[in-house]
Each structure stands twice: as C-alpha cells, then as structure tokens.
Design brief:
Blueprint: E1 3-6, E2 10-16, H1 19-24, E3 32-34, H2 37-44, E4 49-55, H3 57-67, E5 72-75, H4 82-93, E6 97-98, E7 110-116, E8 122-127, H5 141-145, E9 149-153, H6 161-171, E10 176-179, H7 183-188, H8 190-200, E11 203-207, H9 208-214, H10 220-230, E12 233-237, E13 243-247, E14 250-254, H11 268-281, H12 286-300
Length: 309
C-alpha cells in the first residue's frame, strides 16, 4: 500500500447554524471542542442535519488519496453499532481498505458535529466515543510494514492507549507523516508534539497558528529558521498567504487559487494533505505537490462537507 492512515474514526454530522447558536451554546467559532454524549445529544436536538459522512481528519485525507487513484488503507476504531456500520460502508465505497474488525464496545462510534456559519467557517463539537480508545492491539504491524508511508493525526494523540498505538505504528513504519490537527491539540501536548516533529516524523503538516504555537515563535521568520534546521519535510498552510514547504535549505512557496466561491472550509486541510501526499508518493517536485494540495483544498471549500464526490 502507498499510504496507511491511522486516525479517529468519526462520523461527521453536518449542520448549518447562525452565529447566535454558537454564542448561546458558549462555542468559539472555528475551533474544535470535545464534548460528552449528553452535551452532544443536547446540541443536536435543536438542529437539522444536512448530511452524515464517514469522517475524521486523516480518514478524509485517505479518501481524497483513494479518489486520486492511490492504493490506501485506514485504521480507526468504531463500535459494532449503526454508525460503525455506516462508517465502514462509507470507506469501502470509496475503495479504502479498512483494517479494523469492529466488535461490541461499551462506548458508541465517535461523532463530530460540524456547525457551519453563514461565513463558511466551521465549528466542531466532537464526541470521541470509542474512536479515542484506540490501543496498540488495534495496530497490525504487518499492515504498517507493507505501507510506504503511515499518516497520523494529532487529534488522536493522547496519553495512555493512543500514545502506545502511535509508538507501535511509528516504530514499525517505513516513513511517518503527521498532521498537528488543531492549535488546542498543540497547546495541550506541546512537548510531546515537538519531540515527534524533531525526532520521529518524516513529514509534518501544520497551519500557521499550530506551528507558531508549537515552537513558541514570535513571528513567521522564526518558523522558517526552525524548518530549515529541522532537516525534515515540513508543510505549512497559511490561509490567504498560501502554503510553503521547507526541506533543509529548500523553501518553496505556493499561492492560493483566487476568486473561489467558498461555501464551507470543512476538510480544507485534510484535502490539502491528500493532494500533497499524492504528489509526494508519485514523485512530484515539492512545488508540484504543494500545487496539487492547493488544487484539492480549493475544490473542497466550494462545496459542503469533506468529500469531493
């Protein structure tokens, strides 16, 4: 296999809301908040569902890679319940090999409520359910060894079982890519993430806020110096300013596509990673890989949800 994703197996539940809804429920726009089952159900009870999709950050990237014709797989933990079945079906339909045997669990399959405001920003409320309980027993070493690259998500990293699952996957991998996922994740696990970026990862994906926070940088020049000294590949998305790739002394910039009709930013980073990794595994140059990432993220933000088709 070209790429194997390891991430939170989460069913995305997409709803449109106004800014008022966020204020009323003490939610901060454009962030991700972990909620318990009770809070999740209470939020959902006042909403109309637009669509449900087998999601999770890395799973979205892996589906994007499959749609580009790459041989890919995914490991993520679901329950043997209705949403778990939907999840597995959703991946198989997209020609993603799913390497997890679901069984009856005490926690339900994870769900993410994606609230889209009129300005196209997305605010996420995640009930991790069983997804966050992934352990080293869920990681099949043979599958890891047969994959050219494994792709991990920062959202999944947590002390205890998920950390052991990460360590087992990294130890047996050929190459490791990871997305830092969210500034809150970085703030929570800063020393661990910094250790991963410096010592364990071959490719790091981050947005500007995440990388500034990770290295406590005062400005972007410090990020560039950090990237050049790192000696590994680091890919940074910068919103309106486009994206950059740094590998040793090689720094490549890529502009955003202009005049897009943006309807929903869900999946922009996930599909950017898919496009970039598609370029990387198919021997594109750094510039071409960034351009493919930009093309994919530009397409996804012009529609609702994190699926291109």
């Amino acid at each position: 296999m070209k790429i194997l994703g390891v991430g939170n197996a989460i069913v995305d539940v997409i709803c449109k809301v106004d800014d008022n809804f966020l204020t009323k429920n003490n939610l901060t726009k454009s962030t991700m908040k972990l909620v318990d089952e009770k809070e999740f159900k209470s939020l959902l009870s006042n909403l109309k569902i637009e669509e449900t999709v087998a999601g999770g950050s890395v799973a979205n990237s892996i589906v994007g890679l499959a749609q580009l014709g790459n041989d890919v797989g995914f490991i993520g933990k679901v329950n043997d319940d209705e949403l778990g079945n939907k999840y597995e079906e959703g991946l198989r339909k997209e020609k993603v090999k799913y390497f997890y045997s679901k069984k009856k669990e005490k926690l339900p399959t994870g769900t993410c409520l994606i609230l889209i405001t009129p300005d196209s920003e997305r605010t996420m409320c995640v009930f991790l359910g069983i997804a966050g309980e992934i352990s080293e027993n869920d990681i099949d070493v043979n599958i890891i060894k047969k994959s050219e690259i494994i792709f991990l998500e920062g959202y999944l990293w947590d002390k205890g079982n998920p950390k052991k699952a990460f360590e087992k996957a990294i130890k047996n991998s050929n190459k490791v890519a990871m997305s830092l996922s969210d500034k809150f994740c970085v703030d929570r696990h800063k020393s661990h993430f910094l250790d991963l970026v410096k010592n364990k990862l071959d490719i790091t994906f981050a947005n500007e806020q995440e990388i500034l926070s990770l290295i406590n940088a005062k400005n972007f020049d410090e990020v560039i110096s950090f990237g050049k000294n790192l000696g590994k590949l680091i890919i940074i998305t910068r919103g309106e300013k486009g994206s950059i790739g740094i590998h040793k002394d090689n720094l490549v910039e890529c502009d955003i596509q202009k005049n897009l009709k943006i309807v929903d930013l869900t999946g922009a980073g996930d599909l950017f990673a898919a496009g970039f990794l598609n370029g990387y595994i198919n021997n594109f140059s750094l510039k071409e890989s960034l351009e493919k990432g930009t093309e994919m993220s530009s397409r996804i933000i012009q529609k609702i949800g994190a699926r291109l088709s």
